Amino acid sequence: MELTSVYKVKEWMIQEINSGALKPGDHLPSNLYIARKLNVKTDDVYDAVDELITEQVLSNNLEEGASVKPLHPFFYPLDELVSISKMIENQGYRASTEYLNLDEKPATSLDAKRLNVPDKAQVTIIERVRMADRMPVVYCLDKLPATDLTCAQYQNSDESLLNAIEFYASKKVAYAETEIEAISYEPHISDVLDASPHEGLMLLKLIHYDMDDQPILYSFNYFKSSLVKFKTVRNSI
């Protein structure tokens, strides 16, 4: 089978990346340079670059052109209940937390529905940023019934929200329902995460349930998309 010029260009770029000649974040040589080096048409180079952008080997900045896609230092497994701290520490970074707000407020009708509590029942609200070596990685907004955990109780805990719930409420998380949503830009959260207006965020909305299928924790986790990649295992039915 005859290999096309587009295949030839793609394979050359992949080998340059694998050998380290082109490193994550490096800009590609000009299309004309590549075309002359490989003795192909510039249109073939354009097509090869477009295909590798679609396959996420390369990324494209409209102002700066194509470059080798930077590596994601963190992987978050969607099919496991893994703490963000563990995700960070598994990659050799030191996990820490910066608290933005810790309060107890009456539940809105939406909070009440999500947590299965009466309207206006007190809800503990924890707003924080999870850090890796002082680098912001995830913005977290957590809500749970104050009857399960108060602000004072949480402040006396080891910072693990799930451990604190288990200790003070004698409730253990059995599973979590997760929704994933791509967020292009959110001024407050993007600023907190030190993300530019061009950098997307991935939002995980989780409702954690106990052994009796009762919701005990509702969380918004905004992941900085340049730092975290998600993975899961899908089995055939």
TrEMBL record:
It comes from the Bacteria. GO terms for molecular function: DNA binding; DNA-binding transcription factor activity. SUPFAM superfamilies: Chorismate lyase-like, Winged helix' DNA-binding domain. SMART domains: UTRA. Residues 3-71 form the HTH gntR-type domain. Keywords: DNA-binding, Transcription, Transcription regulation. GO terms for biological process: negative regulation of DNA-templated transcription. This is GntR family transcriptional regulator.
